Automatic annotation (TrEMBL):
Matches recorded under InterPro entries: CDP-diacylglyc_Pase, HIT-like_sf
EC number: 3.6.1.26
Keyword set, alphabetical order: Cell membrane, Hydrolase, Lipid biosynthesis, Lipid metabolism, Membrane, Phospholipid biosynthesis, Phospholipid metabolism, Transmembrane, Transmembrane helix
Top-rank lineage group of the source organism: Bacteria
Reaction catalyzed: a CDP-1,2-diacyl-sn-glycerol + H2O = a 1,2-diacyl-sn-glycero-3-phosphate + CMP + 2 H(+)
Leading EC class: hydrolase
Localization per Swiss-Prot or TrEMBL: Cell membrane
Membrane-traversing stretches: none
Protein name from the UniProt record: CDP-diacylglycerol diphosphatase
Keyword Flavoprotein found: no
Pfam families: CDH
Main location: membrane
Pathway: Lipid metabolism; Phospholipid metabolism; CDP-diacylglycerol degradation; phosphatidate from CDP-diacylglycerol: step 1/1
Length: 224
C-alpha cells in the first residue's frame, strides 16, 4: 500500500522514496516523492507525491480550508528541480483521481507526477484557445481531449501561477455550482506552451459533461 511506503516519525525513517520534505518543519504538511512502481523498478516518468499524514483523497476537507497544504505546487517544484526532477524537457503532467469506486486503487491521497501522452498534448494544443482565461470561466469552458480510451470532455482553465489552492478553486467553481461532490472529481495540470498552466477537471456525474468525462486521469499519462 502507498501509505506503508511513506509513514514514519521522521525523514530519516523513510525508505524507498526519492525525497521527503517537511516544509518549515511542520509534520502535518509533509510529503514524500514515492516511486509509482515497485522499489527496484526503474521508471523516470512514474512518481507519486504522497502526504506523510493520512489523507484519503481529493475529498478531504482540509484541502479546501484557509491554510491548506500546497501539494500541487510541491509537485510542480519537484518537476522543475534538478537533479531529482523528471528528465529535462519532459512534457510533464500532475494529476489526481476521483474517489469514485474503481477510479483509484488506494485511499491515500497521491498526485501522479508523470508526463502527458503525445496524442493528448496534440489535441489539447488544438483547443487551447477554448480554455477559460480565469477561474470564473472554468465551468463554462469545455474542451474535448484525446485520452487512451478515446476523446473525452474536460473543463479547462488557463491558470497563471501554480500557487493557487487548486482543490479550493475546484470546490468553489465546479463542485458547488454543479451540486456534485469533490469525491467525484478528477484533476490534471500541465504546462500551456503559450504561458501559464492548463487545469483540467472532469467527472462521470456532472450534468454539464453529458457523461463524456473521466473520473481517472491515468488515460492522459504516458508513464513509459
Amino acid at each position: 500500500m502507498i501509505w506503508d511506503g511513506v509513514k514514519a516519525a521522521s525523514p530519516s525513517d523513510f525508505k524507498g522514496n526519492v525525497d521527503v520534505v517537511f516544509p518549515t518543519g511542520e509534520p502535518s504538511r509533509g510529503y514524500a516523492l514515492h516511486n509509482g512502481k515497485p522499489v527496484g523498478t526503474a521508471n523516470p516518468y512514474d512518481f507519486l507525491l504522497v502526504p506523510t499524514i493520512r489523507e484519503t483523497g481529493i475529498e478531504c476537507s482540509n484541502l479546501v480550508n484557509d491554510n491548506p497544504p500546497e501539494y500541487f505546487n510541491d509537485a510542480y517544484n519537484y518537476v522543475a528541480s534538478a537533479p531529482k526532477g523528471l528528465p529535462k524537457g519532459t512534457d510533464w503532467a500532475l494529476g489526481i483521481e476521483s474517489g469514485d469506486p474503481g477510479a483509484r486503487s488506494f485511499n491515500q491521497l497521491h498526485i501522479h507526477v508523470s508526463r502527458l501522452r503525445t496524442d493528448t498534448r496534440n489535441s489539447l494544443n488544438k483547443v487551447a484557445k477554448s480554455c477559460g482565461a480565469n477561474e470564473s470561466q472554468w465551468l463554462q469552458s469545455k474542451i474535448v481531449v484525446n485520452t487512451e480510451r478515446g476523446d473525452r470532455t474536460f473543463r479547462c482553465w488557463n491558470a497563471g501561477v501554480m500557487t493557487h489552492n487548486f482543490f479550493g478553486k475546484l470546490n468553489d467553481n465546479i463542485v458547488k455550482p454543479l451540486k456534485v461532490s469533490m469525491s467525484n472529481e478528477s484533476l490534471l495540470i500541465t504546462a500551456n506552451p503559450a504561458g501559464g498552466f492548463f487545469v483540467l477537471s472532469s467527472d462521470h456525474v456532472g450534468p454539464d459533461l453529458n457523461k463524456h468525462g473521466v473520473n481517472n486521469i491515468e488515460g492522459l499519462l504516458n508513464k513509459g
